Amino acid sequence: FQPRFLSDYQSPAFTIKKVDLTFDLYDNDTLVTAIMQVSRIDKSSKQLRLDGEHLTLVSVAIDGQLLAADQYQLDDSSLTLSIEQDDFTLEIETKIDPENNTALEGLYKSGGAFCTQCEAEGFRRITYFLDRPDVLAEYTTTVIADENVYPYLLANGNKIAESSVENGRHSVTWHDPFPKPSYLFALVAGDFDLLSDTYKTASGRQVALEIFVDKGNIEKAHHAMASLKKSMAWDEQTYNLEYDLDIYMIVAVDFFNMGAMENKGLNVFNSKFVLADNATATDTDFFNVEAVIAHEYFHNWTGNRVTCRDWFQLSLKEGLTVFRDQSFSADMHSKAVCRIQNVRLLRRMQFPEDASPMAHPIRPEKVVEMNNFYTMTVYEKGAEVIRMLHRIVGDDGFKKGMALYFERHDGHAVTCDDFVDAMADASQVDLSQFKVWYEQAGTPTVKVEKQFDQAKNELTLHVSQHHPDLPVNKTTKDLLIPIAIELITQAGSQSHLLTLSQAQQTFTFKHLENEPVVALFTDFSAPVKVEFEQTDQALNTIITDAKDEFSRWDACQSLFMREIFALINAPSKAVSATLLATVSSILNSEGDNALKAEMLTLPSFDEIAELCDSVEPQAICRAVETLKQTIAGELASEFKQVFTSNQQTTYSKDAKSIANRALKNVCLNYMARSEQYASMVSKQYYEADNMTDGIAAFSTAVIANLPDLSAISEHFANKWKDTTLVMDKWYSVMAQQQQDTFTKLQALLDSESFTLHNPNRARSLIGAFAMNNPQHFHCESGQGYRFLADRVIELNAINPQVAARLITPLIQFGRFDQATQQKMKREISRIASIDKLARDLKEKVSAALS
Ligand code: HT7
Ligand code: ZN
Q: Domain named Peptidase M1 alanyl aminopeptidase C-terminal: which ranges (predicted)?
């Protein structure tokens, strides 16, 4: 498996301007006919090399002349032709086997329907093609299939023809007028329920909106439809961006490797991000459906109209689109809570990735398997980089930059540099140093020392930046880091934006009333770690007095972290009384309950481990458990009181009710650890009239290993046995069991409804175990690592993309002690030694073992 390098990029020697595709759909023997208008760009190039994998070639013809087998070269990944003409018609017929396509890339079957997934390099599993994002073609697609079994035949663009053909089959033709790269191609054939609506754009055009779901699920599609309309309106209001085709279709499928896919005019979604109703979806599910619908819709401009020159530029579309969906969610909901959740995700998932053997810059420079680079770094850190740009050039500058970006690049495949240049030119800010964020991996640390001159009432901050020494970075350069701060004095608070551009810099603030408490990186203004000595008292001042709600939450997390580290070092020490007082005062404070819920939630295992160098994982688990038990015990009646006062008699999805539920369920989690109130958990479970409360009680019962657990779990499974997405939740919760864990995990693997072939199901059990059950994943016997490795080996043969995602917690061993690292590496070596190891896994295990 050869790596590809960004530095080797060459523009294509040939391009394909138009493609006419016909799919004669059969489960095992689909015939694909591709008629392409090809042009030579580089006149010195005589060989046309087309990508193709897992294909059976039927015929090749140039300008109507069939080629004999000795007139082309064929191997496992390409078809090469010698070409005389500059412009010619190339016709290729291939056969494919959608039913046995368990990798879910290219054309495959999900349940009873045919669907496609072409990003990143799946189109080459459909036909031989220039499967690269800088070849933009105009597509016409004809789909032919049995009319009864597949009444809906869909593809990108607008429908231009339909007819009945022989043998009970029918044919539908679609045309997409917007030239696009092959990764945005889509086809769906199936029998669905259809939810239809319309949207009138700002300029008055009528757009048909269609959501296709499995039969019987239409009532679960209304929230997705409302989300789509909100997204369309938001993009018009915020960036003046209108939808461009006459129809926007979304199809929900159960078998899908990721969340959703932004194919032009025909999004294909994991049903998890479409279907939601009060009985089956949690508040978080409703939020996520809205966010993913928005994300895919926003790609229509940031990704589709302006696309990536090459896959190294993936963050051009993904970082920017995540930033756009985060901004949208923040406008629809609580800004502070959204920001806290973005940061939690970044610290829990991206920071560890950025310190792992697979660390890479947001614009990677070396790739073996592109599917391995749909990462937290490219997406989430990529969004943080865009957010910093936004902060540096300001909201107006950013909007002007976006407008200039579309003016310059609409209809083209471009680079991250092109985007930053548009921002720099529109706002007249020099962003050359800022571009270092695109080329450097690793989470920077910013160290700050504070000096206060009492006589002059002058504050000085000595600030320095430090970069981890990672093999992936040849050298390290200083970054341009925006540092938003708040200075809290008796007279109130003042906000400043500092720009750190050098290795060390000093910032001075004069005329202060008294020595201020300093809140650094308010609103998490840069994706860095911070070293700054602060007293508990200063952190408490930030919690009570900072204007920035993110900083109030962050200060609270710092207090928890401090206590957890103290408990790791001295397990039998008493939990600090000041911390208990802080928790109590948050519990009893006025204000936003959603924010309070976030403030009362302890840091996760991964956030803690992230700050460790060489720690035994069990020591983290023990420290967290001690802290949780102590808080729960000491403040039991306060939790009960807040729990009771936030109980609701009727279920509603307004922001206040969602916030109340969040707070109440955090309280319940603590109450499960106090003898007096643990029974409230099963009471809530059986009385719940919504999934948020039901699943909160169920998972609390599992994590606290309550006596009613088996009755609750049986009741839940019985009630929801026919609802796939809810059963995924059941598997996720069951993966967190604390007693006889491995026997129970085996029983879950053996259960009738478990299959590794469905990525949601695989992730719900195996992913949830490795990510959310640290006590047992990291158990001293190494059984947790073995369990994961065994599943990864099984998945290698079924779906390498999913296997390679699930291996992540096993390769992030660097923060643990040597003994733990050895156990983890032993399992990685076992994976490395199997026959036919897929490229996806090979890249990751090689990096981990090098
Ligand atoms: N752009 C989409 C990425 C995606 C994907 C990538 C590889 C393999 C399968 C995939 N499914 C979707 C999703 C997005 O970021 O919007
Ligand atoms: Zn995306």
A: 537-849
State if residue 257 touches ligand 1 by the CB under 6 angstroms criterion.
yes
pTM (2 d.p.): 0.99
Per-residue CA distances from 769 to 374, 620, 736, 748, 772 (Å): 22, 17, 6, 12, 6
Query: What pLDDT, on a 0 to 100 scale, did the predictor assign at position 613?
Result: 86
The backbone torsions φ and ψ at residue 187, rounded to the nearest 5 degrees and listed phi first, read -145, 140
Q: Any idea which ligand is nearest the CA of 322?
A: 2
Evaluate whether 11 touches 134 at the Cβ level (below 8 Å): yes
For 789, residues 6+ apart whose C-beta sits below 8 A from its C-beta are 810, 827, 828, 830, 831
Average pLDDT over residues 635-647: 98
Close Cβ partners of 691 (under 8 Å, ≥ 6 residues apart): 278, 279, 280, 281, 282, 285, 726, 729
Q: Summarize the confidence of residues 505-524 as an average pLDDT.
A: 97
CA–CA gap between residue 381 and residue 442 (Å, rounded): 10
Which residue numbers are catalytic?
Answer: 296
Q: Which of 118, 180, 258, 270 to mutate to test the pocket of ligand 1 (most atoms within 8 A of CB)?
A: 258
> What pLDDT digit, counting tens, does each position of 190-237 carry?
999 999 999 999 999 999 999 999 999 999 999 999 999 999 999 999
- In whole angstroms, give the CA distance from residue 322 to residue 318: 6
The string of pLDDT tens digits covering residues 36-74 is 999 999 999 999 999 999 999 999 999 999 999 999 999
Tell me which residue has tokens 């309280």.
Answer: 667
Taking a 5 Å cut-off on Cβ, the residues next to ion ligand 2 are 318, 321
For residue 145, give every residue at least 6 positions away whose Cβ sits within 8 Å of its Cβ, in sequence order, or none.
25, 114, 153, 169, 170, 189
Is the shortest distance between the CB of 406 and ligand 1 below 6 Å?
no
Question: Looking at ligand 1, which atom is closest to the CA of residue 104?
Answer: 9
Ligand 1 atom closest to Cα of residue 256: 11
Ligand 2 centre to CA of 412 (Å) is 18
Q: Can you count the helices (H) and strands (E) in the chain?
A: 30, 31
Q: What are the structural domains, with CATH classification, of the chain?
A: 4-298 (2.60.40.1730), 307-439 (1.10.390.10), 721-850 (1.25.50.10)
- From the list 337, 297, 303, 333, the residue with the least C-alpha distance to 320 is 303
